[in-house]
Amino acid sequence: IFAHAKVYRDKLRAYATLIKALGAQYKLKEATDMCFGVLSQLGVQRQSSLPDTSAVLRDLMALKSSLEDLSGDELLNSREMVNSDMVAAMSFLQPLLFCNFLSHGDQFLTIVFDMLYLTLKYGICEESCCCLSTLSAVL
Predict the structure, then answer these.
(1) Which branch of life, at top level (predicted)?
(2) Domain coordinates of the chain in residue numbers?
(3) pLDDT by residue (tens digit) across 106-136?
């Protein structure tokens, strides 16, 4: 599949399947590295690290406050994510989040923030639910 793909997008399903297989075999480092590679090709750049802890906590509290003011109807009526690259990126961020959680990785919050950023900038998609539920557990 990888050798015969004409464009990168043709490889995405194969990468998704391979990443899930690596995760199931508990080869979390390989799955994580592959996810980051795919995300890079989709235009989602990896943050090198989280900002200062106090800034993160301040931003989390502000976000929590703004989300508490959001009604269920407003959330359900959010615009849908239509950028196909960002929808694909979100579909790779979700298993990346799972692998990072299982491996006790240090980028867990960074991945959640990346997902939240894409959701707020481009709209809601299926994987946004994973982001928002993870964020609610963190808050």
Answers:
(1) Eukaryota
(2) 8-138
(3) 788 888 888 988 988 899 999 998 998 998 8
